[in-house]
Every structure is written in structure tokens, then in C-alpha cells.
Amino acid sequence: MPLRPSLLLLIVLLTLPGCFTNKQHQGERLYGLHCASCHGEQGQGIGQLVPPLAAADYLTRHADKLPCVIRHGLRGPIIVNGKDYNLQMLAVQDTTTHRDLSPAQVTNLLNFVESSWGNHPPPGGPRTIADIERQLAACGER
Question: Is the pTM value of this prediction over 0.85?
């Protein structure tokens, strides 16, 4: 017996969202894989050793440099929420390919961090891949 067009349409509409969710939570997964062991599951940091990402003023004050921090790491003293930190952060690399995260992955990771734990996206709204590519180019990448 052939399916009615309305039933077929309903099946398509119910399954269609699954086609687009592959990267929906990529930022959260990347954070859990690459960042949570130091910055904490809830972005709380580790005492005086590793700065928090939760409600961190550093994210707002250095929003344009964050893609470069992810790609190249960070060395030297920084101040987060009025506290000094001076521990090296390594660059974030894909654990499977041992390559830098793609601009899309950096975008998803930053959008997750900047919308979690009391943080807010930059004034222009969530980041786009084009924004990240521009910011990576400004820190010396092509």
C-alpha cells in the first residue's frame, strides 16, 4: 500500500532535523575533549593555576585574540577577574589528526564557551567562520 503524501511529508519533517544536528553540539564536545581537563567541566578553572572561563572578563576584553589563543596557545602572565595567572596554555589540536582545529571547529568551540557559565557572545552576536578566519589571519595565519 503506498504511503499517503501527508504521511510521507510528516515522516520527512520528523527525520529532517537529524540531518542537521551533526555539528550542533560540536563546541561542547570540543570543550570536553580539549579544555575541561584544565579549565573544568563548568569552566571554573583550577585555583591559582588555571584561570576560569566561567564569567571570565578576559574573554570579553580579548575576544578578538581568542582564536589565536586556541590555535597557538598562550604564554606569559594574564589577569582574569582580577587574579594573576602565569601558566602556559598549549595550542589546541585535533586528537585524531594531530592538526590544528579547523576555523569551523574554533568557531563552534568559542561559541560554546562564550554562551556558557554566565558568559555572553561578543556584541555582534555568535561568531561566524568568516569572523574566525579573519581573526586567525590577523595573528599571522593564512
Answer: no
